[in-house]
Structure formats: C-alpha cells, structure tokens
Amino acid sequence: MVDKLTLNMITQRSIEEGVAMEKGKTTQEYFEACSIIEMNEEDIRKLGLLPNQLVKVTSECGSVIVKAIKGRQTVYPGLGHIPQGVWANQIVPPRTQATGEPQYSGFPATVESARGERRKSALECVQGAVGLWRSD
C-alpha cells in the first residue's frame, strides 16, 4: 500500500455529467456526477481506499477533493478520469500548447486519501477559485 499515487489525468465529458448538466450545475445530480474520480481497481487497492472514499487530487496548479470510484468504463492502471466540470477545472493546467484550449488531458496528478475532508459544492469551487467564497 502507498500513501500517494501519481496518475495520468484525463478530464472529458461523460454521459452522466451531460444529463446532470441539463438539470443545473448546482443540483445534487450534477454534484454526484462530476465530483468524482474514476480509477482502476488496482490503483484503488494500492492506495488502500474503501469504496467511495474521498481523495485529494493535486496537480501542478491546484487540488480538489473528490470521491474515488471504480471506473464505469475501462480505466487502465495509472489513469484517472474526472468528468469535465467545476471540480476538474481546479486541477487542469492552464497551458494551451498553442491549441487555444487548456490541457484537459494528459497531465500528472497525485491522488491520496482525504480522510476528514469534504467535497466542496460547485459554488464553493467557482467562488473560491477567484477568492470570493465566504463560508457560513
């Protein structure tokens, strides 16, 4: 078992994210569809994670707390997938490599247990990213 694992991250659209987005980005359905990381079972086992345990995902530009789940489609060992959205945007590097779009896929990120932490809402993530979030 290891404390941290570096994965090759991809952030892409998912069916669940698309369906939930139509209902609204502040809905519980969108929260559950997008504040996750899909991982291979082998990687989940290496980290000693329990089913649906929260993890901290950290890239060169930020970190986010999400729920670790077994990949709903094929996710190879060493690969992690966070559906595109507010939570993925917390860790997507801003470089565009002359494409005009941020590097949504193919960047390293470390994953570790986040016991005692909680997932932030979409509003907390967006407002926190620009320094406007005021907790209750």
From TrEMBL:
Domain named Molybdopterin dinucleotide-binding: residues: 8-106
Domain of life, source organism: Archaea
Molecular-function GO term, any one: oxidoreductase activity
InterPro entries cross-referenced by the UniProt entry: Asp_de-COase-like_dom_sf, MoPterin_dinucl-bd_dom
Protein name (database record): Molybdopterin dinucleotide-binding protein
Source species: Methanoculleus taiwanensis
